[in-house]
Amino acid sequence: LLPQVCAQLCRRPCYCPWVPPRCPRGSPLVLDGCGCCKICARRLGEPCDFLHVCDQSQGLVCDYSSAPAGTGGTCNFEDDEEGCEVNGRLYRDGEVFQPSCKIQCHCLDGGFNCIPLCQENVRLPTPDCPYPRRVEIPGKCCPEWICEAQDQHLLRDARAAAGAPLLRYPCQEWGTEWSPCSATCGLGFATRVSNQNRHCRLETQRRLCSLRPCPALPAAFPAVS
Questions:
Q1: Which part of the chain is the IGFBP N-terminal domain (predicted)?
Q2: How far apart are alpha carbons 210 and 189 in whole angstroms?
Q3: How far apart are CA 45 and CA 63, in angstroms?
Q4: What are the residues facing 146 on neighbouring strands?
Q5: How far apart are CA 62 and CA 46, in angstroms?
Q6: For residues 59 and 143, what is the distance between their CA atoms, to the nearest angstrom?
Q7: Residue 120: C-alpha distances to residues 114, 124, 129, 193 (Å)
């Protein structure tokens, strides 16, 4: 079958453009399927066929498994190599990648594990910073804690008391998970740190909790006469 395809598509002598094509970044110049002219190698996920070959230096082959008969395929990794797909993009086994600036992932055995790159530390109010607030900084990926000045804080409280909008900016809700209940039976309380309040201010919050009723105390032994 291959000699028939070559006879139909490959013409001799070769007639190639005088100037080689300018390839996008990450796509090297390679010989086409006829071994005749230099073309830009197809990258992962791009269409391919006998003439338009994939970038073999990246371990890519033309995959016809999901293509209708008689049509081209798609550049993909070889079937014997594990990989993972994230947001429509394929990654090779062992490859480390960042879907966004806030997380880093590792492709392993067909799945992937991700770790956050932004610290999720909690900054509680202190005497030198009584009103900490976590905000997005232009030009930076991870949000940062800032110390809001007291006059700004009082101004926001005054606007709230007067019925004016509490915030001139949307409050990005943030908080830790609720802690385990302080009591294993009966009534206890759980705590968390959150800014989900009318002033978007970081504070420690509490709520009541009860895991199960406490068992009844055994009756006292009768007195011995």
A1: 2-78
A2: 8
A3: 10
A4: 133
A5: 9
A6: 38
A7: 15, 13, 18, 12
Residue (of 99, 103, 95) closest to 77 by Cα position = 95
Query: Which of 37, 4, 36, 40 has the alpha carbon at shortest distance from 21?
Result: 40
Q: Are 16 and 34 in contact (CB under 8 A)?
A: no
Q: How many C-beta neighbours within 10 Å does residue 156 have?
A: 21
Q: How far is CA 61 from CA 30, 47, 74, 178, in A?
A: 14, 11, 8, 50
Q: Which residues contact 19 (CB under 8 A, 6 or more apart)?
A: none
- Whole-number pLDDT of residue 217: 61
One of 2.60.40.3140, 2.60.120.10, 1.10.8.60, 2.20.100.10 is the CATH number of 176-213, namely 2.20.100.10
